[in-house]
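Bump. Still looking for MFS transporter structure tokens.
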Amino acid sequence: MGARGAVALQYAAAGTLTALWGASLPAFDARLDLGAARLGAILMALALGALVAMPLAGRLADRWPGRRLLRLSAPAAALALTGPALAGSARTLTITAIGLGMLLGVLNVALTMQAVAVERAAGRPAMTTMHGFWTLGAVAGGGAVAAGQWAGAGVRVLVVAGAVALATGVAVAGRGLVEVSPSGTPQAGTPTGSASPVPIRATLLVALGLLGAAAFVAEAAATDWAGIHTTRVLGADAATGSFAYTLFLATMTAVRFIGDAARSRLGIGRTIRLAGCTATAGFGLILLAGELHTDESTRVGCALAGWALTGAGIAVVWPVVTSTLGAVGGPARQISAVTTISYGGGVVAPALVGFVAARVSLPVALLIPAALMVAIVVVAPALLAATMRGHRRPVRPHQPVPHPTTPAHPTRTAGELVDTKRSLR
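Sorry for the wait, here they are.
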């Protein structure tokens, strides 16, 4: 297995791990009688644990090779899932959720560093495809929990067995990971086309973090509110509401597997602008659906098309941001800082959209992610171009560099020219 395949498996495992947690929450709620308030507090504890750990993970990645960090954090995060699965009280579940969140935060940074190393070694984009494997893993994990419960298996057994299997799988796959230096570049022996590390201004890092946060807000709005909008605003049944979320995830996954090729063909600026326009059009159709005075099937069809376009547009935004950071180089602290700010957007989004929906209406609340997608169209191309501005072209391996004191075209005698012509015959 090559390094690219090993990293893809790690991404798929991370997606499966996240899905095992999310798909098991209804069973945890029923077993421990949590209620909405406690469940919300537990989800916030998980998110805060991740936010605290991400900056620390960046410092660790600067000191340790990226392979070592991922080989330690991936099995540990998988095994940490057994804590919530076996928790006997809400307090224990909260404590174990904090630990799981911290390990997921470290895992997120370690995965990004490995994907950056793979891109540099291959000399072509790979980040969007890696995130495609993450979504595939999420679908597989959620489906496994649902199928296991339908077959009569307990959630505790399913989660613990899944955690052990994932820990074993990522430990084996970890042998094929790329060894990278603390600065994020492949070490000697690994093909490289990386640029010299370029420090990025703090203001630019914050702006990139906010760009990623905009994508996470839109994604969270879709995953948390697509089904509710379809049922409560448009009057569809619960199955159709679930299908809205599924359609969003399906188009996101499909586009992620073609996103790297599109970026190679169109360039970063056009790709991010097209992504923002697509997602903006999607939210436009969603908002239009609630204003149509037609039959329910037409309104629902309009909204479903909107969620499909939204998923297709959002799919490449965050991968392009992290890939751009990786191409510029610099310490892992930069990537972890941007990741922390961006992830914070995903944490704030559900509460923000819910607050506005409760005070005004859900369609008005969905104007927030729609406006953020417009901002991506307007701001993102210039922002990414500014990030790449300090990027220096790499020197190809084994490319001879002329000595500065040697003339580029040394003067030759007539005899030397004759000898040269004879040697070329």
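The CA atoms of residues 234 and 290 lie 6 Å apart.

Edit: fixed formatting.
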